[in-house]
Structures are given as structure tokens and as C-alpha cells.
Amino acid sequence: MRQPVLAGILAAAATLTLAGIGLAQSASGLSSLRGAGVEDPVPLEQVFKQETQRFNREYRQQPPLVPHSIDQYQMDLRTNQCLGCHDWTNAGDRGAPTLSMTHYLDRDGVEMDHVAGTRWFCNQCHVPQVNAPALVDNEFVPSVTR
């Protein structure tokens, strides 16, 4: 007797869940940050180009922005093309900034002669700089006046 009741409750719960998902997906009035409907394509008015001059850092300990394109850079578990120029063994010859020593420390603070796995994916912290308008209002003021 308990099994038919349990089966009925599960069937009702599944039906209500599917109905709720359907209602949530058909809800109107949703819009993206750019003001268009979620399903509407948003045309680009202008393509923003990579800035060649270096941007100042806006706060203490901010990771530097990348002053060049990284569109074609391979970065996966085996390869990190950033290190071709920025690893301490190559930076002097290439005229590129060297990675900070924190990139060569493991989780326990032990210094290594290669980049730590926790710092392998550069674009987790470092992003290409571009002079594009903000998607949302931002009232951030740097702590250091220039």
C-alpha cells in the first residue's frame, strides 16, 4: 500500500517540476545587461581594438593587464605559450617582463625552477587590455591619485 502512494507522490512532484521549468523558461521581461532580450542577437556597433600603450594598475596587487593580443595563444595542461617570452629563462632575450617570483612557489611556499601548477593558466588573472565601455555602471576610484 505504501509503494503506490510513494509512486503517486513522485509522479506528482515530477509533473510539477517540469511545469515549473516550462513556466520559468517562458517568463517574459528578461533582458541581458545590454538591454536586449535574452534570445535577441545584439549587433556590435564598434569593434574595440587592442590598446598598445600599457594601462596603469588601479589598485595594489592588481595583476598586470596584457598589452598584446592572446587570441592565438595555446594554453592547456601541456602548453602555455606565454612562457615562451615571460618565463625567467626567456624574458631577458625577448625583452618581456619576467613573471613574479610568486609564480614559482608551490602551495607550501617552496620555490621551484618552473611555473607552479596553480599559476599555469595566466588568463585566470591577467586579461588583455582594451579600451571598451563598461557593460554596467562602475564608480570605482583608484586608491592612489595620479
TrEMBL record:
Positions with a binding annotation for heme c 1: 68, 82, 85-86
Principal location: periplasm
A single GO cellular-component term on record: periplasmic space
Modification after translation: Binds 2 heme C groups per subunit.
UniProtKB keywords: Electron transport, Heme, Iron, Metal-binding, Periplasm, Signal, Transport
Annotated heme c 2 binding sites: 103, 122, 125-126
Membrane-spanning parts: none
Gene Ontology BP terms: anaerobic respiration
Top-level taxonomic group: Bacteria
Location relative to the cell: Periplasm
Keyword Signal among record annotations: yes
GO terms assigned for molecular function: metal ion binding
Subunit structure: Component of the periplasmic nitrate reductase NapAB complex composed of NapA and NapB.
Protein task: Electron transfer subunit of the periplasmic nitrate reductase complex NapAB. Receives electrons from the membrane-anchored tetraheme c-type NapC protein and transfers these to NapA subunit, thus allowing electron flow between membrane and periplasm. Essential for periplasmic nitrate reduction with nitrate as the terminal electron acceptor.
Family per similarity comment: Belongs to the NapB family.
Protein name: Periplasmic nitrate reductase, electron transfer subunit
Organism phylogeny: Bacteria, Pseudomonadati, Pseudomonadota, Alphaproteobacteria, Rhodobacterales
